[in-house]
## 1
Amino acid sequence: MTEAHVPPRVPVLVAGGGPSGLAAALELGRRGVEVLVVEPRTVLDPLRPRAKTTSVRTMEHLRRWGLADRLRAAAPLPVSHAQDVVFCTGLFGHEITRFPEAFGLWTQPRQIAAEAGQQAPQPDVEVLLRAAAAELASVTVLVGSRVTAVVDGPDEVRATIEGPDGTTTEVAAEYLLGCDGSGGISRRAIGARYEGSSGALPNLSVTFRSRALEERPLCALGVHYWVIGTERGGLMGRLDLDGTWWAIVQGVDTVAGDADPVALVRAMVGDDIDVEVLATDPWQARMLLADRYRGERVFLVGDAAHLNPPWGGHGFNTCVGDAVNVGWKLAAVLRGWAPAGLLDSYEPERRPVARRTIEAAGGQEAFLAPAFSGRDVDDDGPTGWELRAALAEALQVKDPEFHSLGLVLGYDYPDSPVVVPDGRPVPEPTLATFTPSGHPGARLPHAWLADGDSLFDRLGPELSLLRLDAAADPAPLAAEAQRRGVPLTVVDLPGVPGLRELLGEDLVLVRPDQHVAWRGPAVADPAALFDRVLGVPVPAPAAR
């Protein structure tokens, strides 16, 4: 991380150094592309954790960057501590039901993924990403500065950067990534606007400490607790193993003055415990999607393009997915092995993913923790037993919020202009369950190899060609890649049990983001295949 002078011109300017901006900088910087990240926040507030769920898919990207183990070591809440979401009448009350291994939190390797999920406060993730960016000579992060104006154009982007002392500097860039969130300048600069709605209930987040929650036994061990039976519903969980907790209380109108955080926490816990409030934040869920993702040389990434409600923990992870997608494509263009037409695939690939994610998370807005005016649900007698049993059955509607690997791992790009369809049926998208598929556009199915390596660890940094049968000939594609200067790694994997059947072909071309670009027994026209996968413009028909 370099606090250097502002250069007059850069290949890529990133407005905003949150998770999406830093992830994009890593994708570009690891490939040697010069990046300037401009981030106004000088302090990452650990008391306002915001996102807490790093998904299975985001952990796979962190693994690719060599950061997965570093995040697990830094995370204050190890996966081994708890994996279940518990619904209860209060932390000292009765357990109603539980959802095991929520958010992909498993403690033993699974065949379907290279990594398990991880609970970690967003500031901790950002600290790690900032440190990783600082290790790259090609990335400069200006902390305490902000992009205040952007002028998009066909040949370059011009931006105004305001420094910590109020002085301004003009910068020209070949491309600008707008990672500056809902209040940034980038979306307005290209004339894009949000479309969508807001959640029905206001919410209050509280970060607090309590000795009682460390000293007294709780009703169950969970990673999150959804509390039912209090005057207001809500959820809470540990931030660490040293007495720091977070809570989200639903239906709290801070304007009306009903936001005594100590009283609210005590009501959710179910007893008059000690509560040291560290921070509070009022907020309301947003289900918003930008009507377009790019201008001419400006691309919207993350929250600048979409605002997801927090239910299911998808917002921050969707931002990282955007950054990975646009990052490798922009690097390919700037390094000269793909034309600018490749960038036209960013919006048609990522906008449908955001729409589906918003719809899935927003659908849970109707099933928030119900509140009860009385305490019958906490009764120790038959009335309480019957109520809790009925609630446990009704709460199964929440399962897709905690088990959503169909969304997390199953998003695909089958209709992308840079993916080659093979005419076979594409699986219908699912939400809760995930079935690996090798169809073009899908995330490459994962497998653990005989030597213990992950299949994903064998992939090259750019395009990879998997050969699953020793008789298949990768030479035509390899020769065409060499002729074009396209980085291609041939990965020989014959005889891996079940892998050929899972991927469905002898040869599989995989993109840098681990999505399948093409599969087939052989390539009849390697030049045409690369033209499609790299976004080479199709010539217009000759006029008659």
## 2
Amino acid sequence: MTISVTFCGAAGGVTGSCYFLQTDRGNFLVDCGMFQGSKTVRELNYGKFPFEADRISAVLLTHAHIDHTGLVPKLVKAGFGGPIYATEPTCDLLTYMLPDSGYIQESEVERLNRRNARRGRPEVTPIYTREDAENTLSQLKTVEYHEWLPVIDGVRARFWDAGHLLGSASIEVEIENGDKDGKPTRLLFSGDVGTGEAVFNEAPEAPTGVDYLFVETTYGDRNRPVMTDEERREMLRKEVQDALGNGGNLVIPSFAVARTQELLVDLAHLFNRGQLPPANVFVDSPLAQRATDVFAKHLKRGDAQALSHPKFHMVPDVQASKQLAQVTSGAIIISASGMCDAGRIRYHLKNNLWRPNCTVLLVGFQAAGSFGRVLQGGAKHVRIHGDEIEVRARIRTLDVYSGHADQDMLLQWTKNRLPVARQIFLTHGEEGARAAFREVLMAQGIEEKLISMPMLDDTATLKKGKGQPAIPQARLSGEELSRDDWHNLYAGTVTALSEKLRSLETAEERKEMLEKVLRDIGSV
């Protein structure tokens, strides 16, 4: 029996999670996520898959986040007709998340095509449409934690609570390999490992003694202080109090699923105890509103009731969202996307970033090249929808809401899985985070030869047999996955040039500078 795995995403970066497993009896995927971050990385979403979609027999999903599920409709559109296995909460969330993703693809492309028409450039098409996403939903199949599931002939899987998100899972896979001793090859895919301290989630769990371990390393290079619910809420209270006391709005870019609901529960707690002034909270994300209903369905009664606090206002439509531009102070606006790369949050940033009395609070991981990372890095000027915006608002980061385990938590989770007989693959982390976590593992006595850091589209043959696995060519290098690209540099150069021109006192000085720039690039 030949067994191989190709790392088709989240290898050298933190998005696009996708493992392509090939066996003599069939092929299947663990996750099929969308790439996020720089434009160069996002362009991977438009290209061909590094495998044949119609030869995939099944898909196993660790959880609902788009960087783990967002290309499933594209997979179906390309010819995949098999089952998509996930826990019931994951399936419930995807019922809304995938169509919403399709709608965003259509909306973003529609706006881009209007700009392209004015520029004389050709039209582009969305990765997939809302209809494509809706056509995918019938292939979702629910699974229970801890129960073995037949995937394809000779392969079975079992889901364990990963503690990262409602319905999230680490996935154990057993593959019969025809050996005389009858022992299967055992693999464990961590998915995103939770903290055990999040608002809604239990501590992560998983089996021990596997042959191959695939572990995420998003925060493999850092630790966060351990804190109680009250300490976390106090940090949020201070940020909100300071922002509202500054006289402007508080804009919170937030992932629509889980992060928004966690914030709402904590805000309700603070409001109910009189620890915050009675500000209006506007949740401007159709997906967040639907996801909140799903969370309410699966949560304990107290948390479910907190999600419907009277100070929370779900923004019903685009027209109501536009009207929020007229609110210049005293509002808390929570909107997606969490990395500020798409969706309604871009409009709220456009309306508030230039106001010195406003605050933008980043509450999630910002991938390299994302607009959120640009703001986090201290950019003074940015471009949104083609318009240059001066950043006068306060940019703050509150990292206590991360659903990802930090270095110590990841280390403990990994140690609890030992012994690992063959290989530990470090994935889903930028290069610095993976390298740091590798050093930590080695300091714990894990041999260097046992640890592997695969790059995008690398293929590892886990067991050799008569078959020969298909090995795709690498689409991007690891450096490109975890750094700003030329698009980021271009945007920064344009805004820096504009700022420099404004600083010059005379028209003649501005003319001389522009002529020098043009000479340097060979245009005059």
## 3
Amino acid sequence: MNYLDEFKKFISSHYLSTGIRLTLGAVIPCLIFHHYGILNNLIAFPLGTLLIGTTDNPGPVHRRRNSLMIAIVTCFVVACVTGFSRHIHFVSFIEIILFGMFFSLVGVYGNRANSIGLISLLVFVFNIDDHISPEMVLHNALVFSAGGIWYLILFLVLQKIRPYKLIQQLLGENFVELGKLLSVKAGYYFAKPDYDELFNQMIHQQVILRENHETLREILFKTRQIVSESTNTSRILMLMFLDSVDLMERILNSQQNYSNLHRAFDDTKILRLFGTYISWLAAELLQIGLAVQGGFPSKPKHDLDEAFNKCQLAFDKIRERRMTHDNVEDFIMLRQILNSIQDITERIKKLHRATAYDVDLSKDYKPNLETDDFITKQEYSPRILLDNLSFKSSHFRHAFRVTLALIIGFLGSLFFDVGHGYWILLTIVTIMKPAFSITQQRNIYRIGGTVLGAFIGFMTLYLVKDDTVIFIIMMLAMIGAYSFLKINYFVASTGITLYVLLWFNFLNPQHITAVLQDRVIDTVIGSIIAYFVSSYVLPVWEHTQIKQYMKEALDANRKYFDNVSTIFTGVALNIGELKLHRKEAIIAMANLSDNFQRMLSEPKKQQVKMEEHHQFVATSHMLTSYIASLSTYAQTVGQSYLSEEFKPMIRQIDRQFETAIKVIEGEQNIGTEVIKESLPQNQKLIELLTIRKKEIKEMGIEKSAQSPARKALSDLKTINGLFELISTITIDEIKILNKISVEV
């Protein structure tokens, strides 16, 4: 990891922008209120700014605006209802059940609704405590709402001033992550690669890119201004995003049999040369990403034309020295890698130009996609909520666990002297997530971050006596807390604890020691409750859900394959439909991988059939990559190699997909006949291969290089090889699925 580059990425990221926006939005009013001596009466104002502001997830402007308005109204109602009834414990228990279930269950409507539900629960927790006098309940609710309205105004003003900034930040981050993906790919070309580790890194990067692409699609395709307006900036941003998606496909579809590559060429330097050059391309993508984030033109770090020519020259020399009629297929594979590298090089050179918002690039750009098809549609029908009112629903189980944990925490705060008892409930609400692995991780980070933050806070107050310095440290802690809230919960938890303690020190310095102790004790109690409830009350283990993700991956890959393969039989190419199926396949693969990664964090006894599931995830990744490779040939030379010979191959692979899906659906140990079937041979390919070997043997490498059969053989051999690989992978998946019990 290059820490300097990571720092540059963070400095220009939307995470830091969010942290600064929330911090200044909360602190500036505090300074004004303090100047006029009214801060103590309006302390709910910055709290409203911070909490309402955390519901502001990246997305289209109208959705962000609407979610902020809904959050303000909802939190006002919750604050009033809770505040006026908190002294009646019986009513408080009813509110815990109703609010705990409802606000945890609204997550069925997506991340934005889930954020509003979480903040509403936090407002409920803040107001259930006795620290607010009855006559101040309505006053505090209004002041809190005013703080939320202030953030809404701040958001709208900043959006008007810099309408493209968020898109640039997300798009730049996308290119940085693409560079990391390409850097992982380079690892396959160096000596003695660790295939398992490289595969895991590939999966991790694809999950990150999938989430980033979904957010960018929602912003770019759902915002009328971006889709329809003709400004150069908007057109270039759309162009760069679409190019980034194509580039990701190109990186994925460069999958090869790396074991065979190393066997054939490890005694030469060519693989290492390719790996080094691919690493350079990854560095170029990083430069592009940082430039897009920062809003300045990128400058190439290397002379790509000269470097690629060295790769081309090295290939020509080794082919001249070593290629024979016996190893021609190895060199066809090496040629395909070189072609992929060349294509990626040209795309990166184009992206370098795009960072300068070159008018020549955008003037001929015309979006030809039905953009609505590429956006994940979120329904808000009450029926969805009602359908989840069952213990079969993972969302309902999560809501039940949260509610039970809140009841236990509330009882503990009533019967035991735990100081700021609402911090117990606060910890439970922020830690507990639907997935056990995430809850466990946040539990550890919460305790560790709280202890570390308390220690830093204690040392700061002990060593620093200057209020200005303490204030600056508090500001930095706030910025760090809200910048890292969604990327590193340990750092965020440390920052939150630190700034809360320093804030309390300004408000009530006489009781800071008690506050520090309460913070640590209450957090530990809340974490313990969250851990035991998540572990033993209706837990949802990942192995119980993975079958659905596996089926979705197979379905998506089958549709993608059918769409791509029929182009070789004469069906007209529909580029919009092809890209839609590609998107669905990549999303399904990333969801499956994400599920498997979460399973790795669960208790060992819940890691059922891990080896088989890992094999299935790996084969699904390769399957999507091979179909993507086939897609590239379908789009470029598909019409040149139309043949009836592909139809029986396509039919057989379709039968294999169908068999695999039937196994997932419960028909065990089937597909014996399908597994034994061999893919029909391509007679045209056999003829071309025979001709080519004869030419090399009789004419030599140099003279035979001009033969028309060379290019045709290279393309047809690769296309046919991809059909064979897809068939082999689907057969492997049938075998793997037969090993996995249907109870999974």
